From TrEMBL:
Signal peptide: none
Transcription regulation recorded as keyword: yes
MF annotations from Gene Ontology: DNA binding
Pfam families in alphabetical order: TetR_N
Species for this entry: Jiangella rhizosphaerae
The protein, known as: TetR/AcrR family transcriptional regulator
Membrane-spanning parts: none
Lineage: Bacteria, Bacillati, Actinomycetota, Actinomycetes, Jiangellales
Length: 187
């Protein structure tokens, strides 16, 4: 009996799709995904039902990872809700500075997925709701007078930071967004 030591076709497809859809966008071809994963076309359909299912699963897994990264950044900042919220923008500055940073995976996917019924849109909507709820919870702990509205504003700053970070990182968008976030928190 042989023991499998490497990742199976499903994991290889997910890894390849996570990388290629971030580098090239969700419009990356199926053949490129299959080649990068070193799997047969049949594996794509067996495990995900097709490319749309694979993209949706990549978005779901990435969203869980990114939510956890926000939570870790906030927890590392201590107990003060203000510091925890501002730590999000410090984290974004670190993310933008990474050499392989290509912008926000979710903004890119939303713009590229032309079919409004694509299941990836639901995954992205839920991801944004979770991040909004995370921000709103900290704003409530801060006794902000309009926590939901302020969370909307912070989420807009996050989106803008990631978009500008992809095209003009030399402008230090995370630092600028952090200053604007401070004003929202002081509201």
């Amino acid at each position: 009996m042989t023991t499998r030591t490497g990742p199976g076709p499903r994991e290889r497809l997910l890894d390849a799709a996570k990388e290629l859809t971030y580098q090239q966008g969700v419009g990356v071809g199926v053949d490129a995904l299959l080649k990068a994963a070193n799997v047969a076309r049949r594996s794509l359909y067996e495990h995900f039902g097709g490319k749309d299912g694979l993209i949706t699963e990549v978005l779901r897994l990435s969203a869980a990872e990114d939510e956890a990264a926000y939570q870790r950044a906030m927890q590392a900042a201590g107990d003060d809700p203000r510091r925890r919220l501002l730590a999000v923008f410090d984290r974004l500055g670190d993310v933008i500075a990474e050499p392989d940073f290509r912008g926000c995976r979710y903004l890119g996917a939303e713009l590229a997925l032309a079919d409004p019924g694509h299941p990836g849109h639901d995954v992205i909507r839920r991801y944004r709701e979770h991040v909004h709820d995370l921000l709103e919870g900290e704003l409530r702990a801060l006794d902000h007078p309009r926590p939901s509205h302020a969370a909307d504003q912070l989420l807009l700053l996050i989106d803008g930071t990631l978009a500008v970070g992809a095209v003009r990182p030399e402008t230090h968008p995370a630092a600028a967004a952090r200053q604007l976030a401070e004003r929202i928190l002081d509201d």
